[in-house]
Amino acid sequence: MYFDSNDSLCTYLESRPLKDTEKLMLMVGEASADTLPQLRETLNKKGITYFGGIYAQLLVGEKHLSEGAIAFIVEPLYCGLVLPHMMRLKQSPELFKGCTAITLVDGLSSDMKVLTETVYRKLGDHVQYLGGGAGFYDLKHRPCLFDEKGMYEDVLYLCIVKADVKLAVKHGWTKLIGPFTVTRSVDNVLSEIDGQPAFDICREALEDAEDILLSKEEFFRYAKEHPFGILQDDDSVIVRDPISVTDDRAIICVANIPEQKEVYVLSGDVNTLLASSQDIAAYCAEHQPDTYHLLLFDCISRAMFLEEKFKQELSNIQCSLNEMLYGALSIGEIASSYSGELVIHNKSTIIGLLER
């Protein structure tokens, strides 16, 4: 449910007390981040256990809102903070077969890949993964995840619930230039492509595509329209979102780009992006359970690219499905692949129909 203020959320919780086995999952709009300490203090005094993240905007039906909070009451089989290479899980992963792992992560952490690998080493494909990276609209790194004990950055919060989920993922971007080979990268920092500084190769590709002269200062303006695509075995691509350039002409991306992978510079337009979200909405409409929670994680830079047309994307999804849409603009989207692997996406739309 969506609440436009702390008072309205607290009033709801008074009418619907949590059981000992339940937790409150919160997605807070960044315009309400200043009031989060007050909310946390109130929840702590009431003895309510909770976890959540701060997101640039919340998605509610056909609206995208910067303030307020989306709250779900969940009954987790496991719920906890994950650090790089550290996840306290005593249960056997086989016990979670048929469950969904809701995955909230610091979207601007250079450790995002390490964090998700830590989770996958523990759980493998015994669960299905659904989630998105928290963080602020200005893409400046600061604490964005929280629970009753504190505020955190460079962490992941995992909540496993006993529910199946129908997943659909698509991005709408197509290959424009390439392939190139990643010859040096560390985590989410892409340093060299084909043995040359990554920015030099990317600048040349964008200048050819846009017929411009590109400076480092203007990089994001054009790069948001031409992300990278990491080539997969089936000839599809997983998108990586470039967000800035370092002094030594490396490119910082949302999530990792492995060395020796082939990458393309991609292209897309409003029509291809809207068509991709229509496709997955239609797929979900055909496979929707009788009752479910509709969770949407849609990339923040996708919304930046679509601008006023982003409302059309939300409308296309909401009008296709029976339940109310709830979700957030994310910095990195997380979903299971067809083979069950945990995959980090960028510039993508992920719909999850979580059975209830």
Explain what this protein looks like in three dimensions:
With 356 residues, the protein is α+β, with helices and mostly antiparallel strands. It is built from 8 helices and 25 strands. It has helices at residues 6-15, 36-45, 112-123, 198-210, 219-223, 270-287, 300-306, 310-320, and strands at 2-3, 23-29, 50-55, 58-60, 63-65, 69-74, 76-82, 99-106, 127-134, 145-147, 150-152, 156-161, 165-170, 174-186, 189-193, 196-197, 228-231, 237-245, 251-254, 262-267, 292-299, 325-330, 333-336, 342-345, 349-355. It has a 6-stranded mixed sheet with strand order 1-6-2-3-10-11. A 6-stranded mixed sheet has the order 5-4-22-21-25-13. The protein has a 6-stranded mixed sheet with strand order 7-12-8-9-23-24, with helices on one face. α6 packs parallel to α8 (310-320). The longest helix has 18 residues, at 270-287. The two termini are 14 Å apart. The relative contact order is 0.17.
Strand percentage lies at 35-45%
**Number of β-strand runs:** 25
Strand order of the largest sheet: 1-6-2-3-10-11
The secondary-structure class comes to alpha+beta
Mean pLDDT: 93
Number of helices: 8
What would the principal axes of the Cα set say about the shape? globular
Termini, distance in Å? 14 Å
- Compute the CA-based radius of gyration: 20 Å
